[in-house]
Protein: Bifunctional uridylyltransferase/uridylyl-removing enzyme
Organism: Rhodopseudomonas rhenobacensis
Amino acid sequence: MTAPAEPATDDRFETARITGEIDALAATHAGRDDTFRVAMAQLLKAEFVKARQTAQALLLQDRHGRHCAERLCFIQDEIIRILYAAATKHLYNSPNHSSGERMAVIATGGYGRGLMAPESDIDLLFILPYKQTAWGEQVAEAILYCLWDMGLKVGHATRSVDESIRQARADMTIRTAILETRYLTGDELLYAELVERFDKEVVEGTASEFVTAKLAERDERHRRSGQSRYLVEPNVKDGKGGLRDLHTLFWIAKYVYRVRESSQLVARGVFDAQEYRIFRRCEDFLWSVRCNIHFVANRAEERLSFDMQREIAVRLGYTSHPGMQDVERFMKHYFLIAKDVGDLTAILCAKLEDQEAKPAPALTRMMARLRPNPKRRRVPGSDDFVIDNNRINLAAPDVFKQDPVNLIRVFRLAQKNNLAFHPDAMRTVTRSLRLLNAQLRENPEANRLFMEILTSDNAEIVLRRMNETGVLGHFIRAFGKIVAMMQFNMYHHYTVDEHLLRCVGFLQEIERGGNDEFTVASDLMRKIRPEHRAVIYITVLLHDIAKGQPEDHSVAGARIARRLAPRLGFNAADTELIAWLIEKHLVMSTVAQSRDLSDRKTIENFAAVVESVEQMKLLTILTTADIRGVGPGVWNGWKAQLIRTLYYETEPVLTGGFSEVNRAERIRAAQAEFRAAFTEWPEAELNAYVSRHYPAYWLKVELARKIRHARFLRASEQAGHKLAINVGFDEARGVTELTILAVDHPWLLSIIAGACASAGANIVDAQIYTTTDGRALDTIAISREYDRDDDEGRRATRIGEMIEDILEGKVRLPEVVARRAAGKGKLKPFTVEPEVAINNQWSERYTVIEVSGLDRPGLLYQLTTSISKLNLNIASAHVATFGERARDVFYVTDLLGAQITAPTRQAAIKRALIHLLANGDVEQKQAS
């Protein structure tokens, strides 16, 4: 249980004055209890609002989140004490209480810790000696009704001491709430009885049970909120490395060690003085962030969303530096704090394992087999390290000082022997980082061990531990610069270092094979030259290592690789290959997603970049791991098929075997695959259907989607629909897919985009095909608006009805879109510099217009409309969204079917589109 909260400053809540004013109100409203309650609630609400404003002003001034949480808690404590006094003095004053007419008002749960965020719930427990009495019920109701009238969120329970003990034994949530109880007012002897009996009858002998339950709760919470502590929109309360992890740590410590304050953990040997200072620093920082979020949002918001991050950064005093925005510096600090929380949790868990309060770990959660595990024994192949309860530990305190290479060796030995890391060893590693000097970085044995770690099983896990201890950033100094670095955009889900480590993990999954997501990359991994296996591993680890620098990170990263690779044992040729892969690591993704892969010029241009089949194999593997490592749902079957198509279309060019015959064979193979998988129709019908699609369709669409298309087309035509829409839901990507079948029309894409915009649907990508009999088959992916699929389905139906109405001339699209746009006043927290490139080298038949800018509802409609008004025909469009950035590519001709070659015409097109990207609302008004 916790000591009462104290005010953090001399700016005290004026309890005596307020109590006097309530006494005066009681006299004024004598005999009218209802009006007295209303007047008292109004008075306390006004005082509460003023006190909150003062707390916010002090937070902005001193930026100490814990002090703010203490202030807010103290204010709440005083209000409850005032209410209890008023209820027992003015409303239900009984001069002769019976033995049962006693009550203790207790703070529980988060409120019981003595720390409150501005919008936190108030958890109260009314403790009674026996059963409920009329007096106790009336007093509790008077307090609660007044708190509710003040607009506060209150959780409450009324129980006897016996009932509280009984429920605490049976329910871990109630047990945790009582663990954090704090006396507020009323009969203090009742509270003392609860504390004493809770310790003796509930806590004693149940430490292992409690620890297991709390750690299981933590794991489930992490699973729900995202396993990584490096998610770029973290949950400050429940996310990994957030406040709840600190709370869990302290709950466990209080339960096992029976401490009342976190400072007592030093005396119990759990933390040393430095680690306790880290604990307090983490707590203060996280409370600063959480309190500021609540004040800004004016609600109990716990997610540090993009639109909140910049404002919180400014409130906490962060400023921009060259290469990093203020918000990126703030978020880097946040992720470093989250890492410290994880380290503290590991230290406590190790202490508990030593006392057998929780089971010992392994490096991976799934052991290959059970094996005897003596408490301490020597690690095979080393006299400097021992196995301590299935964790690697130091044989002597000075093993790193005696041989600094051990700072790398300890991680390799743990990896080879499937051992977890003992926190004592990791503490010593962190305190020995000064030994990671230039001499050690150039040491051949240290570099050999590092490459073994990178290219062996469980590399992601071991590299992450090296990163968390600081070894990775000190051994590869360029890596240290991107540790905890966040990119302020909606595309990347993780910090840069976390992204790179995850990419290594996905590379190992690609190499193992068996995952249908990575069929092409897995096949190519088996076919690369053996000496290039290490090349692809180091490339994947380093490909984003120059993020955060003013220049192009691909070019800067290649330069870093040229300096680093020889040190790691690579020869000159392999060093240059690594540098080339890093410099070109975005090319394949860009070409696959934003170029016409059926255009021979596209393939020839890409072949000129990759130069050889071996380099293309490596680039394909790198691209697959990179996209998959961005975040959940970013890699999907469509992108996999595009990468596959680009690879197999380019391979014959590089081998000198490019010909239409070769391409025809690939088309026939794709059609044969479809026929083999889709056996529902008679052969004649199947043959007729296959002939309805152009070659590009068979090469670019994945098999599962082809089968869905076939069923959709047949059902639509049998029903006699001129326009049909099929709705699908991709949970991994968080999008709704609309597959639209309609008679082809020059403005159809614009109409579809406009209908989506009118429904508030934001298009994130599009696949556009035309059949040989003049039907358009377009698949549009839009961001979800509703959680329930049936709600999303109704929204899709509205879009379909809008498309039909527009095609039939019942509504004018510009007017509908303009009305919708007028209601969209909220600006995103991002800025993207508009870019337009016009190129005649990417196609022999078409002029290619590539536009890039801040995504917004209706953008695709505006672009297609503007391009048509510029007297251009759109032959094909390639629509993609990377977070907040839209990148759309249009293959166009003039009205006579020729490329746009005149510089003045190109300049006019570019000016119009840049103006649209920068001033979309203006263009929208003009269009209407």
Remarks:
- The radius of gyration is 33 Å.
- The mean pLDDT is 86.
- The chain has 41 helices and 16 strands.
- The chain has four domains: 15-204, 221-354, 476-642, 721-927.
